[in-house]
Amino acid sequence: MTPASLDSAGGNDRILGVACGAGAGALWGLVFLAPELAHTFSPLQLTIGRYLSYGVIAGALLAPRWRALRPAIGRREWLSLAWLALAGNTIYFLLLASAVQMGGIAMTSLVIGFLPVAVTVIGSRDHGAVPLRRLAPSLLLCVGGAVCIGWQAVAAPASGSIGAQLAGLACAFGALVSWTAYAVGNSRCLGRLGGVSVHDWNLLTGIVTGAQSLLLLPIALLVPARANDTAAWTTFAAVSIGVAVLASIGGNALWNRMSRLLPLTLVGQMILFETLFALVYGFAWEQRLPTALEVGAFALLALSVATCLSAHRRPA
After folding, report:
1. Interatomic CA distance for residues 79 and 83, integer angstroms
2. Share of the chain above pLDDT 90, in %
3. What is the DSSP code string of 95-160?
4. Could you tell me the pTM of the whole model?
5. Where are the domains of the chain?
């Protein structure tokens, strides 16, 4: 294959990878609405509902192919699935839902908006990665966009107590660390497991996550629950199944596909699509137009992705 055709193939992979990243972000952005839609339920209940649904659906989809897939999954793969499910799903969503309910969507979006910076900085240490100095403009634009997103939340009077705000901020930072570990580890596992499809890896992650959510059930039963009527439980079930199908099955499958097509330094920037779509859904939920700062955030985040793509182009 000639250098020109190799570059063309790489360009096609980047386009498809970015498209998959945007699709994953569009589906993952719905997660930020889940705590608001089912606000009478605790973050622990929301976590169990979502991932129990994810595990049941994943198990049903994987059952017909399990016999053929089983030889490719050894002890090392099961251990990887266990910690990836814990970091990227169970712990992350529990902390995210807690942060949204205690600190608000804007503050949580501000902290989570720094995910691309963390993942890109780690990815820049990989062999053959784009040097960090070439990625600096993209990272600075990303930081600027995240600051614009959260500035109003920081400047505005807090809706809850100081203690609740600080607890929400701590949960948001915990979610940031947890998902950074997942994004890096998952990308490297997918690069190592050439014989397992991205869809099957997602379903295996769902089965392990569902099993982990069962371990949380005794804890949930010990915590006093609010009295919810039939309508509230119906909403809870609909939100749990909807988020499991759209965000966990659909969004994770697109993300895994993207992780095999793009280098880790570019994977980090794709997380920005989740922030952008979360903001769009938030505006629709609140039935308002974006403010000047929020428009500025959109522009900066879009420029951050474009600048990062430009830094990954091969020189002519």
Report:
1. 7
2. 20
3. HHHHHHHHH-HHHHHHHHTTHHHHHHHHHTTSTTPPPHHHHHHHHHHHHHHHHHHHHHHHHSPPSS
4. 0.79
5. 31-311
